[in-house]
Amino acid sequence: MGGGGRASFLLLVAPALLLTLAFYFVPLAQVLWISVTEPNPGLENYALLATSASIGRMLLTTARICVATTMVTLLLGYCVAFALTRATPSLRRVMMIGVLLPLWVSVLVRSFAWMTLLRREGLINDALLASGLIQQPLALIWNELGVVIGMVHIMLPYAILPMAVQMRQIDPALTAAARGMGASGFGAFYRVFLPLSLPGLLGAGVLVFIFSLGFYVTPVLLGGGRTLMIAEYISIQIVEVLRWGTGTMLATTLILAIFALLAMLSRAIDLRGLFGAK
Amino acid sequence: MTRTALTRRHLLGAAAATGLAGALPRSPRAAVPDVVLCNWGGDAVPAFTQAFVGPYEKATGGKLIIDPSGPSNGKVRAMVEAHHVTWDLCDSGVSGIGELGPRGLLEPIDYSIVDKSKILPAFGYEFGVVNYMFSSVLAWDTKVVTTRPSPADFFDLKKFPGKRMIRKDSQAMLELALIADGVPMDKLYPLDVDRALRKIGAIKSEILFWDTGAQSQTLLRSGEVSMGWLWNTRANLLKRDTKGRIDWSFAGGLLQPGLWTVPKGNPAGKQAMVAIAAMQAPAGQIDLLRAMGNGPANPAAAPPGDLTDIDPGSPANLAVQAKIDAAWYQAHGSEALKAFLDVISS
Amino acid sequence: MTRQGRASRVGAWTVICFLLLPITVVLPISLTDQDFLSLPVDHLSLQYYRKLFASAEWLSSIWQSLVIALGAAIIAVVAGALCAIGCWRRGSRASEAIRLLMLVPLIVPTIVYVLGLYRLWVRLDLLDTYTGIIIAHAVTAIPYVVIIVSTSLAGFDARLEQAARNLGASLRQTLWMVLLPNMMPALVSSAIFAFIHSWDETVIVLFIGGRAIFTLPRRMWQGINDNLDPTMAAVASVLIGVTIVLLAADLVLQRRRGR
Predict the structure, then answer these.
(1) B115-162 pLDDT, tens digit each
(2) Which of B29, B38, B155, B344 is most exposed by smallest CB count within 10 Å?
(3) Does the beta-carbon distance from C36 to B41 stay under 8 Å?
């Protein structure tokens, strides 16, 4: 777009930039520096990425669960966002209540609610057994499935809202025109609406994926202790065993990995065009 | 301390009589600095307050303030390194002195003020001294486990089917695994970590790991697990809450000390040691036992009959438990934790 | 209504039911007669509601959380939205870099950031203060705002803004009269997320808070080694109840206004 002079650009980004530089990046840099100074100066902490089998396994578990969570969340969230845009204003309000209400419930209470629902003698298994659909209780919690269920539940509002906001801007006349020119319902959706909704999908996907990487409470409370993900691992290094070099190294690696991921993504899709700079 | 206070009161009294009270400078030496005690909050706050705060204030005239923030190793290190220590005493443990001590983040305990005769000698360390005792014990759901299990039965999934529960921490879990595997209790250390992890790893798929005391209670109470290793304090509460449906035993358990530690550069200085000494009095420790199930650290403290059963340090219970070795944890603790987490998460 | 329309509606309501499922369990849990988090065993009990409204500590925690979350959300939304708009208008390499930079607070685990924050706050004497927590929460909430506002701007017709400028509008007028009204949904969404981020935030308050700052998450987490206080379920139920009442009132008002 190239609009807006340098002065107005700097004016607009100044508050956020100054705030985060002063109160986030400066203190963060000091902490991340520890990764190359503790326990000895040099890159020995980073070497752990290649040599430590346990770190490798932990990273794989994290990637697996976060990708699964993101995919499921985007799929389910897209349905809701799509329905939201087509709904009448009053119906939309009611649906929004359903989407936003869970945000009021703290993670602790939510995790306990899931425990009540998902455990062997929990409400869901009781209902399924009583209706004869299953013979043995299902293992819905204390495993990766439970973690994904819990995480998807938390992430859904964060996917639905950005997608719905962006979808609302798609001109309904476009899909109508496609139908008018003979496209089937699905065809119009697939060829016209879906591509137009891609920015929302990607924005939500980035938000959910990155957000889920930092997740600590839900995997701990719903995973039965077996799903060790990076946030918990880093926390143990920092809070318990005081291996601040390892912890900060992992944090730095996370940042670089996400940047690399976004760079790859931008090569596959024109991210700049996506976010508006035409 | 008391003499100075009396002298000051004397002076002030005389000054008041002559109307000069305001003009007298307050002697800084006479003011007893506040001692801030950091523990883990929850039930511990009213329990500690009732057991220790009143008696301390009566004995020294100073204030003892309970801060429920939870003295994690990371926070203590951050405080000390930033030269902004706000805690004088921390309710810490073996891992605390193991991680913080060697890094020079704790004040050495001043045993000229703290009385070494009022503790079990094994639990008076350079950087920490025992405040109360607790144990990691075996508990079971009597609905499913109908006969009293032995420590080894924890790993016998055929005899007592159902899931098991252990803490997501190597401390005490390794010892209990070795005891269950038949290692004599006085020959535990140095720990054969590989042997313990092999035992735990063998039934890994049937184990749930608890992170917090509340979780340990929930898992047993809700029937998710049929047997578990947890703290005696939690087991005690569980038995009471479930009216005996959950039962437990000290046999084959591990006695562990809670430890007072003093962060380096603490604001109240030596007064922290005075506070520790004050809390060595038996009466407060017995109150703590009654309120929370934490055993008295003072061997001279004689709990009344109804409490001896649940006192981890009572002679009968001491006989059936092993004692933790803090020196081993200082040298090998974080390695063992790493190996443990590795095994359970793969 | 097309076939997908109907299918998506069914799908959407299923997902919404999934979202509401744990919430329906929260209400019974808050009415438990036991000492610990559980479903009611013998009878329903209002003890935790009574405890909540009679407890100065829980009420003050709610108040502190409210003040801090509002402050943090306002700062985050204003700063974040302006930044997103600026980057969108500029579209240069520098603006891309800045937008990427704004994501970092979301990527880095808070426990790592908090080590550095602690040291800085000691120097600036902001430990255990409202200001200290509000700034930290605001700065870590900015990524939510930047992502959501950027996503929304992606579909925005740039020509509207260009037209305004061609008609002689200043930057401030363009912002106020053209961009902001169209961005309302995005701003509201990001405000909600920034608010909830602060409302639920635990790591920073546990580390930076002392005896003065005791927000709701701190109150819920402390004592977790002993017991989970069912009062937190009562808190959640009350918040949900209040929200439903407000939204129902809003619905009624809308209907009456004849929309």
Answers:
(1) 999 999 999 999 999 999 999 999 999 999 999 999 999 999 999 999
(2) B29
(3) no
Q: Do A4 and C171 touch (CB under 8 A)?
A: yes
Distance CA A256, CA A236 (A): 21
**Closest partner residue to A242 among B73, B218, B338, by Cβ?**
B73
Q: 């290692």: which residue's tokens?
A: B183
Residues 6 or more apart in contact with residue C253 via CB below 8 angstroms = none
Model confidence at A173, pLDDT cuts 50, 70, 90, reads: confident
In chain A, what percentage of residues exceed pLDDT 90? 54
Q: Which residues in chain B have Cβ-Cβ distances shorter than 8 Å to A251?
A: none
The reply to whether residue C224 touches residue B218, judged by beta carbons under 8 angstroms, is no
User: ∠ at Cα C220 (C218, C225), nearest 5°?
Assistant: 100
Q: Which of A39-43, A191-195, B314-318, C15-19 has the lowest mean pLDDT?
A: A191-195
CA distance B206 to chain A (A): 10
Which of C83, C111, C162 faces A235 most closely, judged by CB atoms?
A: C111
Establish if A236 touches chain B: CB-CB under 8 angstroms: yes
Q: What is the CATH number of the domain that holds A139?
A: 1.10.3720.10
Is C160 at the interface with chain A, CB within 8 A? no
CA distance C83 to chain B (A): 33
- B39-to-B81, B129, C201 alpha-carbon distances in Å: 20, 15, 21
List chains touching C (3+ CB pairs under 8 A): A, B
**What is this structure's pTM?**
0.90
Burial of B267 (0-12, 13-18, 19+ CB in 10 A): middle
Q: Report the distance separating Cα A146 and Cα C227, nearest Å.
A: 22
Query: Does the beta carbon of A226 lie under 8 angstroms from any beta carbon of chain B?
Result: yes
Q: How many Å lie between the alpha carbon of A74 and the closest alpha carbon of chain B? A: 28
**C160 shares its domain with C173:** yes
Contacts of residue C63, defined as CB under 8 A and 6 or more positions apart, other chains included, come to none
pLDDT tens profile B172-216: 999 999 999 999 999 999 999 999 999 999 999 999 999 888 889
Which class is domain B2-133+257-313? Answer: alpha beta
Residues of C in contact with B78 (CB under 8 A): 115, 118-119, 207
What is B245-305 written as a DSSP string?
A: SEEEEEEEEEEEEEEEE-BTT-TTTTHHHHHHHHTTSHHHHHHHHHHH-PEES-TT----H
Share of chain B above pLDDT 70, in %: 91
> B297 falls in which pLDDT band (50, 70, 90)?
very high
The partner residue sitting opposite B42, judged by closest CB among C35, C38, C225, is C225
CB distance from B242 to chain C under 8 Å? no
Q: How confident is the model over A99-117, as a mean pLDDT?
A: 89
In the chain, the amino acid numbered C151 is T
Tell whether domain B134-256+318-345 is in CATH 3.40.190.10: yes
Residue B56 structure tokens: 């301390």
The reply to whether residue A242 touches residue B77, judged by beta carbons under 8 angstroms, is yes
Q: Which of residues 61-80 of C touch A (CB under 8 A)?
A: 75, 78-80
Contact between chains at A24 and C8 (C-beta distance less than 8 A) = no
Cα–Cα distance for residue pair A132/A110, rounded to 1 Å? 28
**pLDDT at position B3:** 42
Q: Say how far apart CA A252 and CA A243 lie, in whole Å.
A: 15
Residue C16 has pLDDT above 90, yes or no: yes
Beta-carbon separation of B99 and A58 below 8 A: no
The segment(s) of chain B belonging to CATH 3.40.190.10 are 2-133+257-313, 134-256+318-345
